[in-house]
Amino acid sequence: MMSENKKSFSVTGMTCITCANTVENSLKKIEGVKFASVNLATESAFLISEKDISLEKIKKAVEETGYGISTEPAEDLEKKRYNLARKNLIFSWIITFPLSVLMIFNMIGYIVPYFVLIELIFGGIVIFYSGRETIKGAWIALTHFHTNMDTLIFIGSLACWITALLSSLGLSIISFGTIGTMIVTIHLTGRFIESHLRDKAAKEIKALIKLQAKEARVIFSDGESTIPRANSGL
User: In this structure, what is the dihedral angle of CA atoms 116, 188, 62, 20, given to the nearest 10 degrees?
Assistant: First the structure.
């Protein structure tokens, strides 16, 4: 059997299984790679190659899909993501809740002066600042000709915000600016819960992994090799 080179690293920026599959397919196209696996849950990648492949070449292949790699421990990356999600969520709700209350008053007949302008300004802050990671994820997906949840959220919230913009310019159109703000905030709430559960699950999985084999054996046409169990798909 030919000598093997094994590499494992963290992949940053992935939000769904489509992202993971895109990165995995890009890694498989690198000359000399005979096996590549990307695990969305652990945000890790593992590959086996017939020759040594530089980290720069791997980084280029991943970045071509719109994502990145990191040698930083996955636990540290998850902690940073959790803290960022928490800050974005708190800031978003501070604006969204009172904006939603004003929208309800406006709908039941208590007209709020300059409400459309308020929607436009504060809604824009939530959508374009608190939701900046969502916009980034949507942009990555669209520029690489695929879609994900970020694409759906951004297009929906942007469409709502545009109605506020057009209404503030004097067009006879109903403003849904607050709805766009609510879409982003609810999405961020889901992201925060996901991040919290992922962090909790990662700790539990780590405890379970200690009780099972750390490696899995994969059979190839020219022999067999061992890989980390987390990247085996089992």
Answer: -120
